[in-house]
DNA sequence: AGTGGCACCTGTGTGC
DNA sequence: TGCACACAGGTGCCAC
């Protein structure tokens, strides 16, 4: 689930529950995520939450003491739930609040991350966040700047737009989708794009991501439900996961190839 | 510095 | 039914 829109929707959902509340307890599972969880996480107990932010696909939670950087990996999700409800398989981390509610982190594959940032350190200066490229909605990222960043790359344009050093937030699904909308073949060399193509691509990245955030927003009401699966934007996907089916524009078959170990979906007729 | 390959981990679907 | 295998939304590390 977690591409940028899902992370943004998650951030907005948990922010309402967390902000200005006191952490009464922390649960930390035994198994390591992408890195082992710090024993210092327990020092969050008694602290108040002062902000919940997003950078790339990371969620940053600041308290009046330490901070947290959370990443959902491939299968992570957060659930807003009454603290008294029993935990289930793959619940790895939980913030219990003075309201009787909890934010629980569940991650089947454990590619996610719960990173402790000691009091006094700026989470945005963490190596996890420090060297990230621009946000897709950053006004300073214009077509010329995107083109400049792509022109330094000889890899495929799909791999390039998925590289957080070029820009953040474009995952495997939206890479295929935005390239389809921009009529650019995913295997094109990143440094072969024209300025017009870069402009079109940036416009489509912004449109698709904001549409997904808007449609994902409704799923927040299901957060207390058992699974919390969104599945809304899945219905809007034009090429991703549709190999062999008809292109919604020209009717020819959608193809799939592997680039950098990840599947890419495209229409060989519409895209050049 | 950029690149491709692989590793991390669990679950699900497919084909034999 | 059982089994082997491919594949899945992300990222980091390694050798080149």
Strand order of the largest sheet: 1-6-7-5
Report, as a whole number of angstroms, the end-to-end distance.
29 Å
Structural class, from helix and strand content? alpha+beta
Major sheet characteristics: 4 strands, antiparallel
What's the SSE pattern? HEEEEEEEEHHHHHEE
Q: Can you describe this structure in just a few lines?
A:
This protein is 24% helix and 22% strand. By secondary structure, the protein is an alpha+beta fold. Strand 9 and strand 10 (262-266) form a beta hairpin.
Account of the protein in words:
The protein is an alpha+beta fold. It contains 6 helices and 10 strands; from the N terminus they run αββββββββαααααββ. The chain has helices at residues 4-18, 127-130, 143-151, 157-161, 172-181, 195-216; strands spanning 23-28, 49-55, 58-63, 67-71, 76-82, 91-97, 101-107, 113-117, 255-259, 262-266. The chain has a 4-stranded antiparallel beta sheet with strand order 1-6-7-5, covered by helices on one side. Strands 2-3-4-8 form a 4-stranded antiparallel beta sheet, covered by helices on one side. Strands 9-10 form a two-stranded antiparallel ribbon. β3 (58-63) and β4 form a beta hairpin. The model is unreliable at 217-230 (pLDDT under 50). The protein binds a DNA duplex (16 and 16 nucleotides) through residues 1-3, 6, 31, 34, 57, 71-75, 90, 107-113, 152-155, 159, 162, 164, 171-173, 260-263.
């Amino acid at each position: 689930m977690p591409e940028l829109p899902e992370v943004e929707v998650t951030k907005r959902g948990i922010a309402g529950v967390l902000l200005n509340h006191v952490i009464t307890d922390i649960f930390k599972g035994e198994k390591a995520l992408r890195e082992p969880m710090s024993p210092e996480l327990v020092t969050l107990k008694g602290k108040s939450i002062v902000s919940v932010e997003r950078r790339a696909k990371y969620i940053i939670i600041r308290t009046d003491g330490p901070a947290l950087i959370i990443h959902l990996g491939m299968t992570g999700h957060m659930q807003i739930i009454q603290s008294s409800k029993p935990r289930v398989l793959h619940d790895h981390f939980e913030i219990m609040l003075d309201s009787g509610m909890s934010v629980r982190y569940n991650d089947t594959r454990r590619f996610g991350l719960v990173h402790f940032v000691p009091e006094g350190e700026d989470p945005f200066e963490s190596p996890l966040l420090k060297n990230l490229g621009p946000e897709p909605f950053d006004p300073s990222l214009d077509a010329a700047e995107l083109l400049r960043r792509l022109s330094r790359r000889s890899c495929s344009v799909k791999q390039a737009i998925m590289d957080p050093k070029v820009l953040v937030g474009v995952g495997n699904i939206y890479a295929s989708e935005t390239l389809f909308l921009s009529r650019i073949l995913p295997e094109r060399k990143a440094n072969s794009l024209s300025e017009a193509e870069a402009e079109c691509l940036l416009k489509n990245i912004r449109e698709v991501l904001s549409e997904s955030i808007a449609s994902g927003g409704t799923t927040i009401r299901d957060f207390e439900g058992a699974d919390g699966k969104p599945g809304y934007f899945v219905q809007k996907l034009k090429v991703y996961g549709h190999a062999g089916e008809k292109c919604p524009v020209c009717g020819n078959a959608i193809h799939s190839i592997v680039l950098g170990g990840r599947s890419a979906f495209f229409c060989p007729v519409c895209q050049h």
